[in-house]
Each structure stands twice: as C-alpha cells, then as structure tokens.
Amino acid sequence: MAAPELVHMMLDYYDFLSDSVLLQEKIVPVANDIMKFFDNFYTTNEDGKWVMNPSKIYLLPAWPKEWDIDFKLHAPKNTVITGKVVNGEIQSLDVNPVSRKNDMVICTP
Predict the structure, then answer these.
(1) 3-state DSSP call for residue 69?
(2) Residue 25 phi/psi, 5° resolution?
(3) What is the pLDDT of residues 49-104, one digit of tens each?
(4) Same-domain pairing of 45 and 63
(5) Quick one: pLDDT at residue 1?
(6) By the 8 A CB rule, do 64 and 73 touch?
(7) Pairing status of strand 57-59 against strand 104-106
(8) Within this chain, do residues 26 and 64 fall inside the same structural domain, yes or no?
(9) What is the mean pLDDT of residues 2-26?
C-alpha cells in the first residue's frame, strides 16, 4: 500500500530536517487524509490488519461537490454503472447487473 509508505517517507524526511513548518503544513494534512481514507474504505480483521473488501464498489469517494459529471464506470464482475451528478447530487444512476446495486457504497461529494 503506497499511501502509508509515503507518510513513512515524509516522516523520515522530517526526522532529517526537523522542519516543524513542513510537518504542520504538509505532512500532518496528508497523513490525516490518508488515515481518513483507510478508516472509511478498509475494515480490519481479528488481528487488527486492514482488509480491503473487493466486492464493494465505492462510488464518488473523492469527487468534488462543485464538479458536475456524466459517468460510465466499468467495475469488477462485469458491472457497468452509469450516472449523472449535478451540484453534488446524484441525478441518475443505472447499475447493470441490478444485483450489484447492493454492493455499492455511494459516497456523497
């Protein structure tokens, strides 16, 4: 997983420079965003290790609310999702096959 490794390298760089401005303005915000992502999209097993659930489809997890979009997403298990988002609201959504709709997690922008 590249994101935690990136934070580790950034902390090594901080250890080398002891630059508190770099830590506060760059490293902490990046590390915070990465940990929020892992908390939202990964679960932990009985050993406390992160486990990704590949059967779930996370729709629009990082899409800015200000951006409107018409999209077509090809997902695993021969799934195709088409939709439209305007002003942060999903206007239309079509999932094929319909049975995969239960595997979707819609993240509002």
Answers:
(1) strand
(2) -90, -25
(3) 877 766 788 888 778 888 899 999 998 889 999 999 998 889 999 999 999 998 88
(4) no
(5) 58
(6) no
(7) parallel
(8) no
(9) 90
Number of domains in the chain: 2
Which helix (H) or strand (E) is 74 found in, with range?
strand 69-75
By residue count, the chain amounts to 109
Inter-CA distances, 109 with 36, 52, 83, Å: 15, 22, 14
Q: How far apart are the first and last CA of the chain?
A: 24
Neighbours of 59 (CB within 10 A): 20
- Which two structure tokens, joined as six digits, stand for 73? 């997403």
**Which range of residues forms the domain containing residue 91?**
57-106
Which parts of the chain fold into alpha helices (H)?
2-17, 20-22, 28-41
Which residue has 């250890």 as its token pair?
Answer: 15
